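I am still learning, so would you mind making up any protein sequence you like and the tokens describing how it folds?
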Amino acid sequence: MTVSCVSARRLRISTRLREDEQPGAGRSCKCRRQSDTKAQWTSSFQRRILVPMVVKRSLVTVVDDDESMRESLPDLLLEFGYAARAFSSAEEFLASDCLDQTNCLILDVAMPGMTGPDLQHELRVRQREIPIIFITANRDETIRARVLEQGAEECLFKPFGDSALFVALQSALSSR
């Protein structure tokens, strides 16, 4: 998903370059003044657009048995500027190559098989220090208190707002 998103951006950018090759031709670009030459504009373009695209983004991994969460959260994470992966189970995540690359984990509390707290414990046993943000549809404060006590960065109740998730991610990644 990340690769296709970057490819789509590059396609839009290359289209914009073709349209704006000649000063005054096609659409105008906000970052180009009328007196700019093509070389100056391309140089400015590379500094403003291409360089940020190669910056390494933090990988946030979503583990949730709910398909709608696995589909929507990665899109939101991409909007926030993070790289994202999603898995339907804790076992699938543990077997993946993402384990060593994950910078933050968004983890459902209740899943079939290995639960979220079980995965948190397994990561501790394997000595993997990954910040965890739990999400749950069960509005039980005792669950929230228990996972926070065991080291989670945050526990959000579904449905949660974009801003609540963003703040939790900022906190979790800054503590790393």
